[in-house]
Amino acid sequence: MQITPITADNFVLFWPTFKAVVQARETYAFDPDISFDDAYALWCELPQFTYVAKEDGVVLGSYYLKPNAAGPGDHVCNCGYMVAPEARGKGVARALCLHSQDQAIEAGYLAMQFNAVVSTNETAIGLWQSLGFAIIGTVPNGYRHARQGLVDTHIMHKALR
């Protein structure tokens, strides 16, 4: 698996995964009807960095990295990860998260924070915890899950230095 900066052509290949994840309304608080152009801006232009994981030309997943806040809070970064359905359970999210931590350290960030990990996403929570992240807060009923209704979201944090 190669993890490289995303290109516009890579995003075209990633778009079906992005759209499927957002439309499922199980993990991301993005508009399920988001357009391709708005998704590209949100995932590729707004963040400081965006990377894609590929193997044999197939996009397995992607992540973005950006400051979690501005000014005095810009030493903490935020990331988002998406993995293609057919690539789940193969270590892609782990590889992306480890890569993002290296990139964050290189960019000078002192910590990484996930602002809204949906509590029903137990696989992701377990992975993030295995990589050193801790739940530092919970927002009751912070997410409208497509199948389970209102569920909590967790704020997860890890010091990088």
UniProtKB/TrEMBL annotation:
GO terms for molecular function: acyltransferase activity, transferring groups other than amino-acyl groups. The lineage of its organism: Bacteria, Pseudomonadati, Pseudomonadota, Gammaproteobacteria, Oceanospirillales. Residues 1-161 form the N-acetyltransferase domain. Pfam families: Acetyltransf_1. Transmembrane segments: none annotated. This is Acetyltransferase (GNAT) family protein. Gene3D superfamilies: 3.40.630.30. InterPro entries: Acyl_CoA_acyltransferase (IPR016181), GNAT_dom (IPR000182), Mito_N-acetyltransferase (IPR052742). It comes from Modicisalibacter muralis. Signal peptide: none annotated. SUPFAM superfamilies: Acyl-CoA N-acyltransferases (Nat) (SSF55729). Keywords: Transferase.
